[in-house]
Amino acid sequence: MGSQTTVNERNSKASAARRLTEAKRNAVAELMRVSPIADELATRFAAAGHRLYLVGGSVRDALLGRLSTDLDFTTDARPEQVQRIVSGWADAVWDTGIEFGTVGASKNGTTCEITTFRADTYDRVSRNPEVVFGDTIEGDLVRRDFTVNAMAVEVATKSFVDPHDGLAALARRVLDTPATPEESFADDPLRMLRAARFVSQLGFEPAPRVVKAMTDMSGEIRRITAERVQAELSKLLLGKHPRKGIELMVETGLADHVLPEVPGMRLAIDEHHQHKDVYQHSLTVLEQAIDLETSHEPKLEPDLVLRLAALLHDIGKPATRRFEPGGGVSFHHHEVVGAKMVRKRLRALRYPKDVVSDVSQLVFLHLRFHGYGRGEWTDSAVRRYVTDAGPLLSRLHKLVRADCTTRNRRKAAALQRSYDDLEARIARIAEEEDLARVRPDLDGNEIMRILGLQPGPLVGKAWRHLKELRLDRGPLGHDEAVAELRRWAAEQGIDVPDA
């Protein structure tokens, strides 16, 4: 029996070795796809007495069969030498990263970043390294973040360089570090968030020692600027498996320092009592919102605003939770509180103003539909729903539908039918009226002429009054709008000139 086990183990190892060899061949074949650009570059570097390697994410993506036209190279040539080598060959050359040893170049639509071997040291207080150029590919690879990013292909010889078994890790879909995780994360704490990002983007599992180091060192992420944290968080949310990435952040305590409102939702019980907690409910809503992203537009890109809103739509619940007589739980006005919390957190993470505004507005509006009941809303209420959502209406539709996570099939079907009915009413009213551009029936110039006013606050008040009428009653005829304006002006004590 023992001898049979040994034979099986040998066969298994041999099979794994064959798969890895085949993967190396596939990587080289994928590399050839970008020829002659890579070959042309390698020839120029060789002629100047230097070596050129495709490296990092480009090799990883080549192995995964998803190599893009943005290529990363590394070389023993110093930045000034790289500039001379690519000058006259590239369509464009830029040196915005030259202080870190990187020269950029483009050729026939392919973008190349060529970085001199690095052997950096870190002060472990900030994230900023003391840039030190290295002399070997092995020294360059050991300082990289993960083993799946610590592989290289020497372009001239098409030879594979993999000193840290990154190919085996890629085959197992495991995320590990070339050095110890503690060393790697102490050098650059952003790598902890990058681990969660790669879990989301690639669907990999972090090695146990990586999870332990992230847990022990999560507080080190505070050394990183908000802008860099935001960039990684956005990439995580736009990945294929954002739930896995968020769960890793929460599990390790990283989220406590980056997005504390998310683990904070574990304190609140979902009002439907169908989920373990609001945290799990929110992760489910995130997944369902992602499924709806392309329901009507199959080629739509991942939607950061929708995904942020889905993840954060209930962050106001812990602060508004109340235990009611009889064992119930309420979260009154959690959408109002949540919208304020969203604005505060996203501003702290340095998100653009439009993202902050859009996400907070979706959070504020996500409960509005539940007043629709069985279609009791008036047309006026439907108009207000559309007007308040504005350009976010399509996203609001998806968020509201995704927010239905009840396991009661009858209740879920009833909610979806109600929203189908609301969308049908919106479409019907939109055919009759221009809902996308609800404006008063008189513009500001007409208001000033009719009332004899100069520009000022009163004109704005009159405009808003007419808009409210427009929302309540739909389009008014010109004479009717003038009569309503005059009636309002009289109530305000405005002396209106004769018509």
Automatic annotation (TrEMBL):
Gene3D superfamilies: Beta Polymerase, domain 2, cca-adding enzyme, domain 2. Keywords: Coiled coil, Magnesium, Metal-binding, Nucleotide-binding, Nucleotidyltransferase, Transferase, tRNA processing. SMART domains: HDc. GO terms for biological process: tRNA processing. Residues 278-436 form the HD domain. CDD domains: HDc (cd00077), NT_ClassII-CCAase (cd05398). Its cofactor is Mg(2+). GO terms for molecular function: metal ion binding; nucleotide binding; nucleotidyltransferase activity; tRNA binding. Pfam families: HD (PF01966), PolyA_pol (PF01743), PolyA_pol_RNAbd (PF12627). Residues 412-439 form a coiled coil. PANTHER family: CCA TRNA NUCLEOTIDYLTRANSFERASE 1, MITOCHONDRIAL. NCBIfam families: HDIG (TIGR00277), tRNA_CCA_actino (TIGR02692). This is tRNA adenylyltransferase. It comes from Saccharomonospora glauca K62.
